[in-house]
Amino acid sequence: MPKTSNIRIFVDIKDLKTGQVVELGKEQAHYLLSVMRLEDGAKISVFNGISGEFDCRLIINGKKTASLQIVDKTKDFKTVPDIWLLFAPLKKDNTDFVVEKSTELGVSAIFPVITEYTISDKVKTQRWKAQSIEAAEQSRRLDVPEIFEPLSLKEVLSKWDKKRKLFFMDETGAGSSFFQKTNQMTEPLAFLIGPEGGFSVQELETLRACPFAHAISLGPRILRAETAAIASLACWQAIKGDWQ
Asked: In 3-state terms, what secondary structure has residue 195?
């Protein structure tokens, strides 16, 4: 009898329903057949970010090809809080960490922002998308965050939807305490984290002049950019988010 697996994968198909057969791409088929060495008939969970989660049966069509037959719906779709993370791209491993952990923490969108002191302007959004899909699969969330194409901070602010409040981390200490601002942190909202060198003086002046932007502080110590990103999301989730 085939083993029941704990594997969960994302399929980029708009609609899923019981009885449907889903053809797997080469990479997913290779992962299930050659890496995980699953047998024909193995049970796998799938989600598409729209329809919820389903139990499926693995159908092995050949040495390198496979499909999934949807057996039963196990979870209805539920959206994550409407919270975005904007951050200046960091060194490769640190950026990978932010993308992975922010996905686990339930952000609805990840937005790379190029600032004056950004150390890396090479943003590989396809890589980010792959990382966020893997993090969503492992964390059992039912969707995958949207990954925006990079823009300069000036462009971001000029195009900003003023209905979405923007909270930026002010490392100068001039911002309000994170917890003093929590009553204002209602959805939709976004957190903006500066680069490793912080925002420039001009950028801080521009941000402070925006009526929709609010300067906040995460305490008396200067946090690394990746730490600030994850700390802000964790604090918000604990106080206002879906952890409750």
From this structure: coil
